[in-house]
Amino acid sequence: MDKDATLPLAGTRILDLSRALAGPYAAALLSDLGATVIKAENIKGGDSSRAWPPFEDEHSLYFDSCNRGKESIAVDFYSQPGRELLWQLAMSADVVLENFRPGVLATMGLDPDELRAAKPELILASVSGFGVTGPLAQAPGLDQVAQGMSGLMSVTGPDVAGMCRVGVPIVDMVAGINTALGIAAALVARGRSGEGLEVSTSLLETGLALGAFQSQRYLSTGEVPVPQGNTHPALTPYGVFATADIPLIIAVGNEKQWQQLCGLLGAPELVERPEYATGKLRHANEAALKDELEALLGERTAEAWLPLLRAAAIPSGPIYNYAQVFADEQVRSLAMVETVQRADGSALPLVRGPISVNRQAPRIRKAPPSLGEDTLEVLRGLALSEEQIAGLVDAGIVLAAPPPPA
């Protein structure tokens, strides 16, 4: 049996109209789980992220990083024949995914109310910048704007003067995860009722939800959180500590781990010190405690400490750059990198999806597509004749990429 047929979303068809990161990230996760994802792109350049660095030759690695497992059809979104084709694609799908500003979908001939009236079981999923209501509902939004407006940047960095964004577009990616979760829930609900749902999120809502206890700190106490660098804002000792050579992350999350750490460092008397007797007191005396711990940790190298810390079940690890990440034995054992072949024959090492099913890690089912790479096959799947397809190509309504090399 084809392994893809056993995946949870096998047989589910998704029309992916999204671009950039949040929507494409959601669709890639759904493809990992077995869904067939048809990525419909505007014939004029396609997904905007195709033009974003970094590049390998003419390939955008930004685009490649979150468009695995998809089929690309390139369509003139704003011509009447193109709109009719998009409608056919929507009617052939279980899910329509988009991340335009509210109302834009209707201007493309895909009014959500009309779609649902024509196909009540259709699931509509959307990601916007600021949500569907409020004064900014029609404003464009991107990840760093959401990081700033949601409070995430205000708690990231060494101090108030050095507030900064998270080093990856974290709000985009988590918005994608939220969207994929919403779609999965809507598919389950449809299995019970037969009716499709509309699920949506926004970058701002996602960023606010990511605030977790920092948001709750303000709501419940009125205290405005500030950035604390690599020191945990609530737990102590928990953060980055100097050793005899390179720093280590050591994360003590409970009293047992605190006692284990003190014993391991040869300083069991720290447990009895009144200023360190509880987690709350350790946090209040954080600077002094860090000085004491680093004096002890400075007696050995990070390489010497790590096996001892892990043997004592104290969460710990080094700070890697990406070259070190992919050389690490644990990372290699997870087989997170799979090399696939693009349509032009070039090899592309990609990080696979993170969700295993029945202890089977996901495989990358298809390399990220070139623009219009699968146009002909997708149109054939809509039962269009070869003459109709040729007419659409000749009229410039669709773009069909050249066939891949033998």
TrEMBL record:
GO terms for molecular function: CoA-transferase activity. It comes from the Bacteria. Gene3D superfamilies: Crotonobetainyl-coa:carnitine coa-transferase, domain 1, formyl-coa transferase, domain 3. Keywords: Transferase. Pfam families: CoA_transf_3 (PF02515). PANTHER family: SUCCINATE--HYDROXYMETHYLGLUTARATE COA-TRANSFERASE. This is CoA transferase. It comes from Arthrobacter psychrolactophilus.
